[in-house]
Write the structure tokens for this entry.
Amino acid sequence: MTTYSITASLLGLRPKHLTSILYAVASRDEYYKEIHIPKNGGGTRTIHAVHGPMRMLQRKLYHYLQERYEPSKYATGFVRGKNIIENAKIHRKNKVIIKFDIKDFFPSIIFPRVRGMFMQKPFSFTAERATTFAQICCLDNGGPIPQGAVTSPYISNMICRKLDSRLSGYAKKNRLVFSRYADDMVFSTNQNHLDSELITTHVRKILKEEGFELNEAKTRVLSKRHPQSITGVLVNEGLNLRRTYIRNIRAMLYKCEKTDVVTQAIEYYRRVRGMSLQWTDSKPKQLVNPENGEQFRAQIVKDEFLAHLEGKIQWYGFVARSNRELKPEHFETRFALYERLLNRLRKVGERETERRNFAELRKHAKDRYSDDPEVQSAIERVQSMDEQNLNSFIHEQEIDDIRFYVHPVHIAEFEDRKARVVELLSRPVLDPNRTIDLFRLLQDSQGSILGRLVHQDRPISKEDLRVFMADFIERQPKLASTLSHLTDTFLKNAWKRFDLTSDTSHDFWEDSRFRVKIFEYMKRIRFLEMDPNTGTNLFNALCVIADDYEKEVPEDKKRIVIQLDHLMDLEFYTDTANVLESIRDVLKSMLRHSKGDKIYLTTRRLEESNATALTIFDNNQTPHFPELSTRSQVGHGKLRSVARKLYGLTEYKIRCLTIGDGWKEINLHTGEVRETSEMPGYSHYFEFPQV
């Protein structure tokens, strides 16, 4: 066998396989991806992330070498059985510590040095094998060992064997303790007086002779009076981490508890990875790096951040445990803090899992409609249509389908128009009965969780709230959108109260902050004349609207008349903000277009259904249309907007006089046209169901 064949066999490879990895590419640098990470002190650190077969090759070489050749006993970094803690322990209780740093440590270990090392003891490899192994360990074109390769820490330790020997020899002669962790060198002593300048001169000289350079800016002399930190571990009293490290963990946990994890994860990417992630406008929303367009799933970003945070806590726990044999009281205090931090992180993780479960339920409830065979069949037909057929389809749907009426498809580009049609077909048709069901739940202060939340001062269990929220999510897709959003936000706020405590039940009415949320929610979903805290006063709101519009027209022009009868004792559930906004829109339209001199606004209770009827009409009986057959004839932009806002909340009808067909009534939500009795004038009629 040739020397090259033997070299390949040492790595468990065939010669052809080894050759293809090393020489079949234009440059071995193709196996590395540069990642630039911001340094705490400014500037960036370049990491070469290894991928492809080179990653496998380096692992094989690393295992082969580290099983046979050991670094010096003074190397504590990246050595089996040693770690940062062991490196710090060596210098514990010493009065003075001097720290040195090697400048550009990895970049100064280049291919010729690595090849030469492999040809010397303890390796004594042939020139051919030394070349092959050095090529595996270094960047191409005589480059250095890459920061990011599994072999690099080991190679750096082996190349520093002579350096360690010389520095440890100097330390022994001067009654000093020496250790090296990668590029960090530490000397310590119990002597009261230490000539730090003389030690620095000798260290600088030895480093230069061994092919390295001292990083003068990082040289530190630490006495007992100051925090003695060795590779981030304080050794003054037992072993500990800096207070800023703990404060940083607490701050991240607090922000996760009070806001959300994804916001902290985005900040983590900015601070640690140098990426200013932003949300995309497309659905489903993703995070994108605006510099290169790379997209990230929010869940992956959150998981990475939580893993980072757990790593920081576990590192503190590792340091805390190291005090067990050194000083029991230090161990007990610090380990208790570690457990508290870990418990807080566990709760954050549980909350994220619960949020994810609710999000999956929402997606399932939404997809259940769009995945319906009939919906899919309609979508497939649309996707196969040409432009003429698509336009005809849209026209037909505007007449028959409320979704197309309240969301008209006015898009120039054919493909964009088709995509909009598919999106509308994928939306559920709202069911007014779902709205009535929700209002029943709100009124039920005994059996319904929602009713108990807004009416009772009794504790509600977390599990009961979880079950109700899951049931509500199933109802959401066919519920009026704003009402759905309001209730969903209210329930989420209730759920957050459990996030802040470890309680399994909560008295929401005793919670003053949440009681404000209850009042805000009730004002948005109920008209109530008696109690301003738990409902919106309809009469007062209508007077404000009327006064606002009266100011916009001359005194001798149209006047708005509000009928006081029945208003003072009205109470009904709906989306109050959308209803009032819709009334504003209707009044604005009538003030602009009506030929009458007065506009009336009346309400009454319907005896047969107990529903609340609200009518806005003028006193002009001039015919408005030759005939009335479709809602498109009366539903201009402003009224379509009203129909959209009230969709799923109430019936919205227009009653008007036609030339040929007399008085007609058209339901803007269903499109149904029928004859009606004579009215004082052009009328907008709203009927709110009573539970």
